[in-house]
Amino acid sequence: MTQILDVADAYALWAETYPPYAHNALMLAEERAFMTLLPPDMRGLSVLDIGCGSGRYLKRIMARGAAQTTGLDLSRPMLKRAYIEHPDLVESSASHIPLRNDVADCVVCALTLGHIESLGNALAEISRMLKPSGLLVASDFHPIGAAFGWQRTFKHQNQRYAVRHFTHTLDDWRRACQAASLTVEAHMEAFVDPRDVPSGATVDPRALDYPVAHVLGLRKRPGEIQVSA
Q: pLDDT per residue over 152-161, tens digit each?
């Protein structure tokens, strides 16, 4: 039986073996879409990676020339995994970020906001971090996965666990974005490439026919006042 853990407890166990790169077919699908929505040239930009985990996207952002990168994550064990290569790290949830307003030209938030029940509160806080007209690229597991019973699982000491997850529909995103002064500029659905599935792996066949993740490109509307949390 798979035991469902809260986010902090789950990643405290998972951090020991969590690699700083896309390590399964779903993450590879998400990453292809995510990188499409990020600016190819990020020189001169100040970038926050919220829910940075072990530093997967921090590496990509730095490779594209970002002038300043800061990673934030709720899990201290995960930050320790990222610290080796990325010293500018902050222990923080996405709902309560200990930074001033308007600090980032760009925010990335990958496979994180589904761990938070109130999408609206998290997006409002992220919007507060963005400069006017700043870009947020965010991804999550596709809502259709909830209908199929998909979970984000991992093994620790031969026990299978799942991370607690909240399903946010595209309509939920649109409503939360409107309230957070964010405009949806792009929405991409990510599909698994069968070539990324290891030989002999057990995969729900529906994962090859339906989107497994979605990625949104969001722009902070200029001229709207953000209230500090």
A: 999 999 999 9
